[in-house]
Fold each of these.
Amino acid sequence: MGVPLALPQDSTLPNVLERSGGRSSLFLSPSSRGAVLPPFAPVSPVCTIAPGAGKRAWTGEAGCSQQRATRGYLVWYTVWSGRGCAPAVGRRFPLNLSRRRATMAVMGRSLVVAAGLAVAGVVWAGEAPPPGPPKGPRPPRFDTSFFKSVPTPKDDAEKRILDVLDDMFKTQRRGMMNVPMEDGRLLRVLAESIGAKHVVEIGTSNGYSALWFCLALRTTGGKLTTHEIDAPRAALARENFKRAGVEGLVTLVEGDAHETVTRIKEPIDILFLDADKEGYLDYLNKLLPLVRPGGLVVAHNVNPGQADPRYVQAITTNPALESILVNLHLTGVGVTLKKR
């Protein structure tokens, strides 16, 4: 088991760090609600802490300040130093399960463990908070219930597409990784508002997002080229396109999009990325030259848990691009304008 290292502890939340075989593990024993963890001394340069199981990122000194657990949850994070700062990972555990322990193993020559307790995944990692009364509960997410809006077809052709979309949502969404309906509606609005003539989609799946584009393209006179590597999904997408009556608007290309996109020669009005996240940068590098000035690059799942930092850096540091993040369902839709 190795020799336990001396760490601060209190009567309600013992902390034991054991080092064995080049690995180090942090054990936190959940106890009563409101348990307090004494602060650890800050030890390394400022870095960003991005929990693997969370949806947020925090910045601060690598080290832990005093924390509290409320609403019955324990959240813990680990930060280590060495060649720079590494991401933290975290999990939530009910505090009322007194025998349950949170365990994590990390490797490295220079190890700094920072543990924190928080509310529903929110943690402070850095210097001790300023003196004064504790902050109140986190404000609720923006309430959209007042804005009830559903697609309303203007003609029979649009109704046919919407009916197929509704059926796909009810019967095909499992395992298809489709965009939420609101994100699909955003795609339609973007394509129709810029009068898109050519949309390129990477990641067809069963054709759900493609049909949202088709709602716009049938009025703009445009076409969609969509790429899918999985043959069964491509076959299902073709069936859905036929049911919706949009076969004439869509060209479905099967194969590895990293290779098939090299065949595209015509200008692109919207490039939509919803495939392998680590491949976004490659798609961007290959296709951005074809995106016309005033065109858009739209990327799905641009969030701390899934986004490739290299892609985010590429779209936010290029002076020829203007990028914003639309976070409708915490999925993250990155919308990038290629400046004129």
Amino acid sequence: MKFTNSPEEGNMKSNKIDAVIKEITDKVISNLENLPTDAKWSKPWSNKGATFGAHYNPVTGTVYSGFNFLITNLSGFECKQWVTFNQLKDKFGMKDACKFTKGNKTTPIVHFSMVPDSRDPSGDTLYPKRTLFRLYNVSQLNDFDTSVFGGENEAGAPEIPTDGVNLLADQLGVDLRYQGNMACFIPSVDRINMPTVESFIEGGTSRDHHDSTLLHEITHWTGHESRLNRKLKTGFGSKDYAFEELVAELGSAMAGALMGLPYEGLQHAEYIQSWIKSLKDNPKALIDASKLANKAVRYMIDNGARLIEREITIKQVA
């Protein structure tokens, strides 16, 4: 099997998708730039009126992941349900679909897939295809009974025991040790070290901070050479090191959203400037980090992490 660049690069459709990617990247950069210079438990990607969580399509059961996790969470809507115009039309008819959506602006998401390249008659060459979909948040719809889709509570995250993330670590077979005053994953010995839960609470944070930190370290853990084999052995403070921290931040937020946990914010404020520079130099860096974070979360799900399975079907969108 061979891979090639998309034949659609540079056309009008591709340019529209690039504009969406740039818009979301610029929004993340803006939020990072507005953080206090001494920020430690901040929320760099939160938007006024929005809350981090598992946004999904109640018709298909699709949970928006990867880059689309960022798009939906940065949209500014508290409601986590999204539908397309065609889904409204199929369920209610054209007249009502037009009434529900009149005057409302859609939110674009990007679907990524690998498809055969028609330029290769053998069919052995694939290229990455990007498709733009436009969604309406259910809270936008005019005179719409939101209970039609069951309400968010019915499809919401399962109840998680107070030590839920620790149970997740157990199910994954993580070598987790509570020792010292640093949270870190050590690739050479394949181990996570964490401060005690009590030290988080005593330090004026919370159990949620502990869980967010542990999910961050578990995301690093998935990148070990025996698992997803990401580039973990990099120099402290280097560009690659900072990029892996961004992957871990996104992985923590995505996994926490599926578990129904609040996102408790940025773990490593010292990397803010590195992230800003990286995103400005390469707007697609956020796409790359989102994809790797999504793979990390899929690894957690596929390897015995029953706790983060929702009752609705989880499908990979990005």
Amino acid sequence: MCEQRYIKVNQIPYLYPLKDDPVGAGRPVPWIQMKGHWLDQAGFAIDTPVTVRVMEGCLVLTAETSTDS
């Protein structure tokens, strides 16, 4: 299954002071929201741990599966 979803990077104020910028609290930071039944259908059920790989211009989300048998 390979579907494309189109979302937008929004902004939200970051309400916590940063160690290297204590005055920066309240400055906007990028924010991505994803929700919907399509996440569950893609293997991202509620409470599923997710690994995020970060590359320039690319985020890869991987649902972590339990290996306990």
Amino acid sequence: MLVREGLARAFGLARARRVGVNREEYRDRLGDEELAAASRRVGVWKLTDWETLPEERRVERAREEEERLQALPLERASVNPNTASKFELMRLPGVGEVLAMRIIETREEWTYEAPMDLLRVVGIGKRTAEKISPYLVFGEKKR
């Protein structure tokens, strides 16, 4: 089997299972085979640099997120930080419940007029402000 030899990944293979084995059980078995191959460092796994893998994956996720953000129409995905609910703010990349509440608390004292105004919020730095900027709209609009 290719997965066992480290020559294939276990993604998307649950449809091609043996008769009498349910999809979830087969997917779990393949996942186990993949982990075993990785631990034995066979196939493609012998070429894997385990020290750099976490950073490579982080960079790849950031690139994918950037591409996803660029693909979204700005007006359609707009959020007004002056009027948005906690849940609307939590839709912004990198904004969880705590940060959303901080945005709401800070807007009680300030009016956000530009993305960089969000730097007043504890926990939002320049990179975060730049990352969420395409999603923001200011003024009377609310989505």
